[in-house]
Design brief:
The complex is a heterotrimer of chains A (439), B (794) and C (157).
Chain A: H1 31-36, H2 41-48, H3 53-63, H4 75-79, E1 91-96, H5 105-112, H6 114-128, E2 132-137, H7 142-157, E3 173-178, H8 188-195, E4 219-223, H9 224-236, H10 238-244, E5 252-259, E6 265-270, E7 273-274, H11 275-281, E8 291-295, E9 304-305, H12 306-310, E10 313-314, H13 316-321, E11 330-335, H14 340-354, H15 360-377, H16 385-396, H17 404-429
Parallel strand pairs in A: 1-2, 1-4, 2-3, 5-11
Antiparallel strand pairs in A: 5-6, 7-10, 8-9, 8-11
Chain B: E1 2-6, E2 9-13, H1 19-26, E3 49-52, E4 59-60, E5 71-73, H2 77-92, H3 108-116, E6 139-141, H4 151-159, E7 165-168, E8 175-178, H5 191-195, E9 201-203, E10 216-221, E11 230-236, E12 239-245, H6 258-262, E13 277-280, E14 283-286, H7 289-307, E15 312-316, H8 322-334, E16 340-341, H9 367-370, E17 373-377, H10 381-384, H11 386-397, E18 401-406, E19 418-421, H12 424-440, H13 450-457, H14 463-473, E20 486-490, H15 492-495, H16 500-514, E21 517-520, H17 527-533, H18 544-549, E22 554-558, H19 562-565, H20 569-578, E23 581-586, E24 598-601, E25 610-613, E26 619-622, H21 635-645, H22 656-663, H23 669-676, E27 697-699, H24 715-718, E28 727-730, H25 732-737, E29 745-750, E30 753-761, E31 769-771, E32 790-793
Parallel strand pairs in B: 1-5, 15-16, 15-22, 17-18, 17-20, 18-19, 20-21, 22-23, 23-24, 27-31, 28-30
Antiparallel strand pairs in B: 1-2, 3-4, 3-5, 6-9, 7-8, 10-11, 11-12, 13-14, 13-24, 25-26, 29-30, 29-32
Helix pairs in contact in B: 7-21, 8-21, 8-22, 12-14, 12-16
Chain C: H1 4-14, H2 26-37, H3 42-52, H4 56-65, E1 77-82, H5 85-89, H6 92-103, E2 109-110, E3 116-121, E4 133-135, E5 139-141, H7 146-156
Parallel strand pairs in C: 1-3
Antiparallel strand pairs in C: 1-4, 2-3, 4-5
Helix pairs in contact in C: 1-2, 2-3, 3-4
Classes of the chains: A alpha/beta (439), B alpha/beta (794), C alpha+beta (157).
Bound molecules: flavin mononucleotide (FMN), iron/sulfur cluster (SF4) and FE2/S2 (inorganic) cluster.
The site of FE2/S2 (inorganic) cluster has 11 residues of chain C, from helix 5.
Chain lengths: 439, 794, 157
């Protein structure tokens, strides 16, 4: 196994391992480790027994699996959109581009259990009639990219991907491809453009990838964690997966916990776990400090003050009832010493920096937002700035080609909404209410 | 059909229609920047956001297909709010330099901002500044003004056929640029000026010349290639300051080639001849019209009286109007000469008298893009007919199979399915092969006359000729002989080919076998018109080539610079030099006319009225858009007065209209035209397929920006990268065989004359061909465009 | 312009796509070219474009869009520090300050000996290991402390 800076992290017995189930094996990323936990049996069964695609989709629907990339779209439903009868090549794409700050779960999947992803994709390919697949991997995690390439070699050699699998007519080629530093490529159509060797500029939809995807061909895009859940679902049945979670949020979820906790890391737990319990698993707020706020699903989800999240459960409905959303399960924890103005500045810079630049409101608006917040942080804020920020954010939201525009607006709107006094203080005094300092 | 409602107005539209198209149909204006009906949809400016019932978010009208029953609101509160906010975003980084911007007054951003913008900016931060790019002599850039609509990028990629511009960088730093220090070299590049909705891309020659509201606009017709593009000429103080396309879907759509757009700069050239001139004892003298014309008439009369009309040769440029052509013919005939011709660059005239009518393109221009099998013979399409090439490019993009038989393999920026790149000589052989293959294809039961069949016996069919035949026959596809979607066309190179007759006959035979449209891509603005008017040698008359081969004592030149416009430069030069009397109607003083005796300043197309007939037989008249410069006079008037002065009858015209009437015998032009357009041969012509020859053959092409006197004098066009010092280009293998190095100076010899040129390696040429362009002073000592040529180390 | 080895690597990437989609390999081709050359000069980008048979501007669009391609020369070791939220919360500022002090350069600068270039990066998808940086786009160093940074710099010297 490659040497990482990250130790195979602390695991808690409160975890339920589905996607990371090879953890604990000597070399969890190896084919052997995966075979040890029953790997590739489902693929073999489906292919050899010629199980009907509709039966597979039924199980996926029953499982309550919702897209783990952030939007939470029901996976079974998405699969049913792929055109059944199509003459040319259909494609399968896995989105391992995670670049949303605070998200690092898919990295651990390809690092510790790549074969389950491969099997999940092969099952999807079988079900959807896709002949070729690409796993698009975040460019910064190069060592993990190489692990995945090696896993592909192993799987190919073992006859789990390639031509005429298990002696049938089913063939599936799967390749690793990489990004090279562009958050926007996480957006599925930007990712497709990038696979085609272009700038990652999202496409206008419709048409959706299911009819016009890679090289203009029907394409199914799912997140890494979504595909990785599939073999387990087929092994244990959709109902069993659903039962791991709560209604409307089936299964387990990998939560990437970062920021001000004692033990940052990925934790795979059942959907619906109370927030406090998850915080506990991550060792609680670090240095014995008080919790101030949490971004529960990555910066494109609204920030929640401690009070709002303490009673929430970690599932789609739970978080939306509490005023935010699950997103990709990227929990960013902030303690009492955090200056929310400065934090917003960093997030606004991120969206400004990462806007692809094709559509006007996002290209121009993200820069505007960042400059105003920056001005506030530099002690040059004006009283009208908060209304201006709110207004500009609302003008971006819902008017762009892709959801990055909305994502850029969300932190601004939610930070100001929940921490307005802190912003007003900064503008009035030219310094942070929390740190007492200006930049 | 779908029924929808926009702003309360019901409309029925086709499936797949977008909201913006439906609104345009209803005349409801939705603001837009990135959308353009001729380009792919980018939906990036977001200016066209509209409200649609049942949708929470506003939708971009340009990219949203309508659904049955859709109710769309373009001016509702939600829609206007969205549009206003987009406008605000667009303006925050836009400079406030409207007062010095060339786009001022015709700027979409300015116009829409007035309608949608807020009075004062809420943006108090620093504005973005973008470095300017130098993308060549035609298009000027002010990139800080760019709003990233990407119309220019999409145009060059989709219409121009080559991605020459791109948007580099990301987010707010994204900017439009060519590759590092490259220029934009597309022959259609000027269109990005029209497409740019702001002042980021403007016309370099027009820069700072005038504000749009100071300009008078007049319609006219482009005077260069055979397409007949409709243009709008913009004038200030009697001077042409720019040319824009008029939208004409069936001809030039909304585009213009750079040649048609920027040639006007040649009208303002210091070379313009503004007073009549007479040469006396070898010295030029300015004179008045009366003296000049009487002198000219006297000279012409003297010679024709003394030596007979056959001693007069009349050469008419195919860029002259029908009226000029007609009157020139009347003069020739009046003086008893039937030596008149407009086909200055043709060398093979064996078809004369054997055709059933006036040669034309055989179909209409838009038909090209509907075709699914196209064979082009002897044409450097992009060079000869830039916008026609674009029609073919579109057909190819839609899946048409294009085949080329050419003596060079220049990139036409479209996918070529089959090609035979061979020496001019071998082109005949290739066509014979295609014909043979075609007649052998069993699905075509037609067969050839015996004489032709016998001839083909000896021909061996190569694989790619077979493939071309199969492609043309639509083998494996639905063959539709009733409305053929196959076209076979002969280009400029074919028309100046020494064996044009063979190419023509074989192509016609192939076309008739596969039911294809067969046509000639007329090289110049009025080639077809001049033919219709009958600017052709009479029964015992000499054609253009013969008139120079057997020099005449007198020449009347209408718009011709002999050594640049004729097939055999050296011969033309000599014939003119040695003639006793040369009367030249010309807009320019020129070295080529040093040997003339009388120069009569003729008004170019902007200063005269007249008619052109395009390659599709479209008769288009235009009027003068400015007053003639100095003492210049419209050609038809000069010829009329010359006719009067000569005492000839039939010259009583008071207007070009009357001349036109005479041409068409009072009938509707379209009736006359349709009765006379016909590419069929009256009879089969004896043709020879194989000519063994081991000599090197010249490929003498007319570069795009040397095609006629006006273009040659347009400084911006002459500064483009397309204009290069002439070289002797040849295949690397030929270089080796001749023991030459790439870049070395060589002596290029044709007949007695030779010139020094750089040898250049060009593997797009077939072996046995030396490509040396014509229509340039440097090569004007050389001979035949496709004649024998020798190359030796200098 | 590129070594046989690099070209072979590009050829391998090309096998991942349909034969008529050579442009698709431009992401990896540029990466491979940069690995060999250290950065992407305009000649290198044009060379890659030509190798793939695409217009040079199409390759430049890509090279200029993604952060990890370098269009200007960089030092032997390019250190890209993530300063995004999770890293910021765990004091990436301290790491940045320390690096800048140790190397005597700011962001987007290169040490006079051409050894190190410092860059600010966006989220690298490893936020659990914050604070962190990566070296030459390849090696990820997590859970950084001043001491760990010193050790790494020592190792690279
Ligand atoms: C700006 C932006 C960034 C995104 N980043 C990611 C990402 O890094 N990983 C991911 O799986 N999905 C990401 N998505 C969501 C994808 O577009 C897509 O919905 C998802 O990959 C579908 O897979 P799923 O249905 O399995 O979640 C992003 C979306 C947007 C708008
Ligand atoms: S919203 Fe932003 S990132 Fe998304 S397409 Fe528009 S400019 Fe690009
Ligand atoms: S915030 Fe630094 S790696 Fe994610």
């Amino acid at each position: 196994m490659a040497a990482f800076d990250t130790p195979v992290q602390h695991r808690s017995d409160k975890e339920t391992l589905v996607c990371l189930r090879t953890l604990g094996q000597p070399d969890p990323a190896s084919l052997q480790a995966y075979l040890n936990v029953g790997g590739y049996k489902q693929l073999q069964r489906l292919v050899q027994d010629k199980v009907k695609a509709t039966d597979v989709i039924t199980q996926v629907k029953l499982s309550g699996l919702r897209g783990r990339g952030g939007a939470g779209f029901p996976t079974g439903l998405k699969w049913s959109f792929m055109p059944r009868y199509y003459d040319g090549t259909k494609y399968l794409v896995c989105n391992t581009d995670e670049g949303e700050p605070g998200t690092f779960k898919d990295r651990d999947i390809i690092r510790y259990n790549p074969h389950q992803l491969i099997e999940g994709m092969a099952i999807a390919a079988y079900t959807l009639g896709a002949r070729v697949g690409y796993n698009y991997i975040h460019g910064e995690i190069w060592q993990d990219y190489e692990i995945f390439e090696r896993a592909l070699d192993e799987a190919r050699a073992a006859g789990f991907i390639g031509e005429n699998l298990f002696g049938t007519t089913f063939s599936f080629d799967l390749f690793a491809v990489h990004g090279y530093g562009a958050y926007i490529c996480g957006e599925e159509t930007a990712l497709i453009e990038s696979i085609e060797g272009k700038k990652g500029q999202p496409r206008f939809k419709p048409p959706f990838p299911a009819s016009y995807g890679v090289f203009g061909k029907p394409t199914n895009v799912n997140n890494t964690e979504s595909y990785t859940s599939i073999p387990w679902i087929l092994e244990h049945g959709g109902d069993a997966f659903q039962a791991l979670g709560v209604p409307n949020s089936g299964g387990t979820k990998l939560f990437s916990v970062s920021g001000h906790v004692e033990r940052p890391g990925n934790y795979e737990v059942r959907m619906g776990m109370p927030f406090t319990e998850l915080l506990d698993i991550a060792g609680g707020v670090w240095k014995g400090r008080q919790l101030k706020a949490v971004i529960p699903g990555g910066p494109s989800t609204a920030v929640m003050p401690a009070a709002a999240i303490m009673g929430a459960t970690m599932d789609y409905d739970g978080l939306s009832k509490a005023g935010s959303s699950l997103g990709a399960g990227s929990m960013i924890v902030m303690d009492e010493t955090t200056c929310m103005v400065k934090t917003l500045k960093r997030l606004s810079y991120f969206f400004y920096e990462e806007s692809c630049g094709q559509c006007t409101p996002c290209r121009e608006g993200t820069g505007w937002l960042y400059r105003v917040v920056k001005r506030i942080v530099e002690g040059e804020g004006r009283m009208g700035d908060l209304d201006l920020l709110t207004d500009v954010s609302s003008n971006i939201s819902g008017r762009t080609i892709c959801a990055l525009g909305d994502a850029a607006a969300t932190p601004v709107l939610s930070f100001i909404k929940h921490f307005r006094p802190e912003f007003e203080y900064y503008i009035q005094h030219g310094k942070s209410m929390v740190t007492g300092k200006a930049e | 059909m779908l029924n929808i409602e926009i702003d309360g107005k019901a409309v029925e539209v086709d499936h797949g229609t977008t909201i913006i198209d439906a609104a345009d149909k209803l005349g409801i204006a939705i603001p837009r920047f990135c959308y353009h009906k001729k380009l792919s949809v980018a939906a990036n400016c977001r200016m066209c956001l509209v409200q649609v019932e049942k949708f929470a978010k506003p939708l971009p009208a340009c990219a949203t297909p309508v659904a049955d029953g859709m109710k769309i609101f373009t001016r509702s509160k939600a829609a206007v709010e969205a549009q206003k906010s987009v406008m605000e975003f667009l303006l925050i980084n836009h400079p406030l330099d409207c007062p010095i911007c060339d786009q001022g007054g015709e700027c979409d951003l300015q116009d829409i901002a007035v309608a949608y913008g807020a009075p004062a900016s809420r943006y108090a931060e620093e504005k973005r500044v973008v470095l300017n790019k130098n993308i060549g002599p035609l298009v000027s850039t002010d990139m800080t003004r760019c709003i990233q609509c990407t119309r220019c990028v999409r145009f060059l990629k989709e219409v121009g056929g080559m991605m020459e511009l791109g948007m580099v960088g990301r987010g707010e730093h994204a900017e439009i640029t060519a590759y590092v220090d490259k220029s934009v070299d597309s022959e259609l590049s000027g269109n990005i000026i029209d497409l740019c909705p702001v002042g980021a891309l403007t016309s370099k020659p027009f820069r700072y010349k005038a504000r749009t509201w100071e300009l008078t606009r007049r319609p006219s017709i482009a005077p260069h290639d055979g397409l007949g593009s409709q243009i709008e000429v913009h004038i200030k103080d009697g001077k042409v300051l720019r040319v824009l396309p008029r939208e004409k879907e069936s001809i030039n759509e909304c585009w213009l080639s750079d040649r048609d757009r920027f040639s006007y700069e040649g009208l303002n050239s210091p070379d313009r001849l503004t007073v009549p001139m007479i040469k006396h004892h070898g010295e030029w003298h300015e004179t008045d019209w009366k003296t000049a014309l009487e002198f000219a008439a006297g000279q012409l009369k003297d010679i024709t009286n003394a030596d007979g009309g056959e001693q007069l040769g009349v050469l008419v440029s195919p860029n002259s109007t029908m009226e000029e052509a007609y009157l020139a013919k009347q003069i020739a005939h009046g003086l008893g000469s039937s030596n008149i011709d407009y086909r200055l660059r043709q060398t093979d005239f064996r078809l004369d008298g054997k055709r059933m009518g006036t040669p034309w393109m055989g179909c209409n221009i838009p038909d090209l893009q509907e075709m699914d099998r196209i064979l082009v013979i002897g044409s450097n399409l992009r060079n000869e007919h830039p916008l026609l090439a674009n029609r073919i490019r579109k057909a190819v993009a839609q899946g048409a199979e294009l085949s080329l038989v050419n003596p060079m393999d220049d990139d036409q920026l479209m996918a070529v399915k089959h090609k035979a790149i061979c020496t001019p000589n071998d082109m005949v052989n290739v066509l014979a092969q295609i014909l043979k293959a075609m007649s052998g294809l069993q699905r075509l039961s037609l067969c050839l006359p015996k004489s032709l069949n016998d001839l083909l016996e000896t021909v061996r069919v190569w694989d790619n000729s077979q493939a071309m035949a199969e492609s043309l026959a639509g083998l494996g596809k639905e063959v539709d002989l009733v409305s053929p979607r196959t076209g076979i066309f002969l280009g400029n190179i074919a028309q100046s080919h020494p064996r044009f007759t063979e190419l023509y006959s074989l192509a016609e035979a192939i076309a008739s076998l596969c039911g294809a449209t067969f046509g000639i891509l007329s090289p110049a603005a009025n080639s077809t018109g001049a033919h219709l008017v009958g600017v052709l040698p009479g029964e015992h008359g000499l054609n253009a080539k013969a008139m120079l081969e057997s020099p005449r004592k007198a020449y009347l030149l209408v718009n011709v610079e002999p050594e640049l416009d004729c097939h055999h430069a050296a011969q033309a030069r000599q014939a003119i030099a040695e003639a006793e009397c040369v009367i030249a109607l010309t807009a320019y003083k020129s070295e080529a006319l040093e040997h003339a005796d009388v120069l009569l300043p003729i008004a170019p197309f902007t200063e005269t009225s007249g008619t052109y007939m395009s390659m599709e037989g479209r008769v288009q008249s235009f009027t003068a858009v400015t007053k003639p410069l100095g003492e210049c006079r419209p050609g038809w008037k000069i010829l009329r007065v010359l006719g009067n002065t000569l005492g000839l009858s039939g010259f009583d015209f008071d207007s070009s209209e009357q001349v036109k009437n005479a041409i068409f015998g009072g009938q509707k032009p379209s009736t006359v035209v349709w009765n006379s357009l016909n590419n069929n041969l009256r009879e089969l012509i004896d043709i020879q397929v194989k000519i063994k020859s081991n000599v090197l053959q010249r490929l003498g092409e007319v570069p795009q920006f040397q095609s006629d006197a006006i273009v040659r004098r347009s400084p911006p066009l002459q500064k483009t990268r397309a204009v290069q010092a002439p070289v002797a280009a040849m295949h690397s293998q030929l270089l080796t065989e001749l023991g030459l190095d790439d870049g070395e100076m060589v002596t290029v010899k044709q007949g007695v004359a030779s010139v020094l040129l750089k040898a250049k390696r060009d593997d797009r040429l077939p072996h046995g061909v030396v490509r040396v362009p014509t229509a340039l002073p440097v090569t004007s000592l050389l001979g035949d465009l496709m004649g024998e040529i020798e190359v030796t180390r200098a | 312009m590129l070594s046989q080895e690099s070209l072979a690597k590009i050829d391998r990437e090309l096998t991942k796509y349909p034969a008529d989609r050579r442009q698709a390999a431009v992401m990896s081709a540029l990466r491979i070219a940069q690995d060999e050359k250290g950065w992407l000069s305009k000649e290198t980008v044009a060379y890659v474009a030509e190798y793939l048979g695409i217009p040079p501007i199409a390759a430049l669009e890509v090279a200029s869009f993604y952060n990890m391609y370098e269009l200007e020369p960089v030092g032997q070791y390019k250190i890209t520090v993530c300063t995004n939220i999770s890293c910021m919360l765990r004091d990436s500022d301290v790491i940045v300050d320390h690096l800048q002090e140790r190397l005597g350069i700011g962001f987007n600068e290169t040490t006079p000996d051409g050894k190190f270039t410092l860059k600010e990066g966006e989220c690298m998808g490893c936020c659990g290991g914050a604070p962190l940086f990566h070296i030459n786009n390849k090696r990820m160093c997590e859970f950084l402390t001043k001491e760990k940074v010193d050790a790494i710099l020592e190792e690279l010297k």
